[in-house]
Amino acid sequence: MPRNKESVIIAKRAVVCQDTVLDGEINIGTVLHPQCNIRAEQGPIIIGQNNIIEEKVTIVNKQPTSLIIGDENVFEVGSYIEGSRIGNKNIIEAKARILGTTSLGDNCVVGAVCSTRTDEVIPNNTIIYGDYHDRRLQTNSGNPTLHTRHLDYLRDVLPKFNHTRIVGERTKGESSEREHHRPEKEADGDRDSERERPKEKDRDSRHRDRDRTTHRTTHREAHSIRKSKEI
Predict the structure, then answer these.
(1) Which residues contact 50 (CB under 8 A, 6 or more apart)?
(2) Among 72, 80, 86, 106, which residue's CB has the most CB atoms within a 10 Å radius?
(3) pTM value?
(4) HEC per residue, the chain
C-alpha cells in the first residue's frame, strides 16, 4: 500500500541538519546530525523529544502503521532502525540494527554491530551484546544529566558548522524549508548590485562632466555679457 502523504514537521527546539534525507510523513522533535536517512516508505514516522540521531543513521518505516520513537534515545553512527516502536532512553550503538516489526522497550542498550530478530518484543532494561547478540537485564537507568548536557552542546555547535532546517513544515512541491545561512535570493541581489555599481559610477561621471560643461558655458556667457557692456 503506497503512502498518500508527504510532509516533514520539525518541532520547536529540534535541530535538523540540511544534509539529510527526509522522505515521507515525518514528525521530528530531536537533534538530527548530517547524512541521516529518514524514510517513511509506508506509514508515518513520529520521532519524540530530545533524541540524538548521529551521522549516517537510517530510520525506515516499511509498515502501514506508524513507527513511533519515544524520547531521549541515542542512535549512534551508522545504526539501522526499522521496528514498530522504540521506547524511551534507549541507546542504539554504532552500526546496531533493529529489524522488522521488533518493539523495543525503555532504557535498553543494543550493542555495537548487534541486531535484533525481525519480530521481537524486547522488554525494558534489556542489553543486547556480544558476537552472539546475548541478552541480559540492567539495573542502571543511565545518566539524564549527561544526556541533557550532550543535547545542549549539540544545539549550540551543530548550527555553527552545518546548514540547518528551521522549525516548520515542508510538504511535497513546496519550499517552506529555509536554511540558517544567507538565502540565495539575497546572494543574487548582491551580485546584481555589484553589476549595477559600474553603471552608477558611469552615470555619476556623466553628471559631473555635464555640470562642468554647464559651468564653463555659463562662465563664457557671463564673460561675453561683461565685454559687451564695456563696449
Answers:
(1) 29, 30, 31, 71, 72, 147, 148, 151
(2) 86
(3) 0.71
(4) CCCCCCEEEECCCCEEECCCEEECEEEEEEEECCCCEEEECCCCEEEEEEEEECCCCEEEECCCCCEEECCCCEECCCCEECCCEECCCCEECCCCEECCCCEECCCCEECCCCECCCCCEECCCEEEECCCCEEEECCCCCCHHHHHHHHHHHHHHHHHHCCEECCEEEECCCCCCCECCCCHHHHHHHHHHHHHHHHHHHHHHHHHHHHHHHHHHHHHHHHHHHHHHHC
